[in-house]
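Quick one: structure tokens for this chain, please?
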Amino acid sequence: MEQYKIIEVKESVFANNNRQAEKLRESLRAQKTFMINLMSSPGSGKTTTLRRTIEALKNEYKIGVMEADIDSDVDAKTIAAEGAKVIQLHTGGMCHLDAAMTKQGLAGLETAGLDLVVLENVGNLICPAEFDTGASKKVMILSVPEGDDKPLKYPLMFTVSDVLLVNKIDASSFFDFDLKRCEGYVRKINPGIKIIPMSAKTGEGMDVWFDWLRTEIKNWRNA
């Protein structure tokens, strides 16, 4: 006879979140809204990349942005100045967003009529990788100053991502960053990931990123 009951809490939390995320994804697909979950460490260039993206695509698509931070509204003010529809999400100390939080954010953003929604997740390479937010695709940014060995240290983030943007590629020589070595590490854990070397500062490689977005938005609409 069992003397006590064992409850796998983490598994239960993830299972419930995944069910909510799938429902959210179905809802977004029904209204033809493509959403990306943009993840990275602090200082990787998420906001600069996002500003460049809005500037390049705002005449083609209606864009909305959800800025997730533990506190402050600095990034939301920056993005609003670019002309995109934006909402700030405060996580109350949480280091990530899950499907339920994302659903609240989407309701506040009022996504009907939006072609592209970007969830700029809380900056770190651990927690955001564990939770499905209901996004159509997961995109992560690795900046050159962080080092080419990050796929070895944070494998889950690189495993779950559909696209890896290697930002600040113009500074590779200053930080002894080996792009081929980094790509090799990433391919071992995620052979199908799309890797785009780029610089949000100079614009190098950004057209490849924009074209990927255009293709994915079209595919999402026609699915």
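Residues 211 and 217 are 10 Å apart (CA to CA).
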